User: What shape does this take?
Amino acid sequence: MDQLEGRNPILECLERRRRRVHRVLVDRGAKRDARVKRILELAGEHGVRVEIVQRRELDRLASGRVHNGVVAHADPLPQWSAKGLLDEVLATEPAPFFVLADALAYEHNLGAVLRSCLAFGVNGVFLPSRRGAALSPVVQRVAMGAAEEIPVVRESLFGAIKGLRKAGIPIVGADMDGEPCHRARLSGPLALMMGAEGRGLSPTLRDKCDRIVSVPLGGRLESLNVSVAAGILMYEKRRQDGWDEPEAG
Assistant: This one.
């Protein structure tokens, strides 16, 4: 079972219906705001068991993490392989857009990157198999539904790079000494590679990139938070694609 914590991720999971939710636990004393009412309504429609419990039970399940009075248990997120994801996307998408993120250590950064991926139409995310944050309850809460929609592969990034190169998809790395992103060609098929917090792209991964781009900065700043930089670069890629006003949904 996968544990979801907080009103927003549980509501997103129930509304998007990508996986089965088995039970929802609600704090007996929680304020029944619009989100809680909608969760209970959807749980009833989908035949999900609802349990009204004391808050200490939710605190125990969430191990002290933020849960806003609601915890749910659902089927695990789908597990993707690099080959399976590439085969599926390439069969239907003429200009695929992927993101590779090397060992993001902070759950909030990974969640924010996934949220931007959903906003800017990324077809899938590649993460290292062992290093970096997992798709934890915190990541899913920060992602605000993106974890339900964005396929995530946890394998060797070098294996993913090999598959991307075979498919003819350019790989663009992000680093502060790169070409300003608005001057670089980012339209069309693309794989955007982000480095880890603090150290950025490793020399080995950097060597695998076709080009390096940066976000121009003022204020005597050297760099941005990785999730902020990723969001800006995703937007610039979509701007070049002529995707300024995507269709709703």
The longest helix spans residues 226-240. Residues 22 and 47 are 9 Å apart (CA to CA).
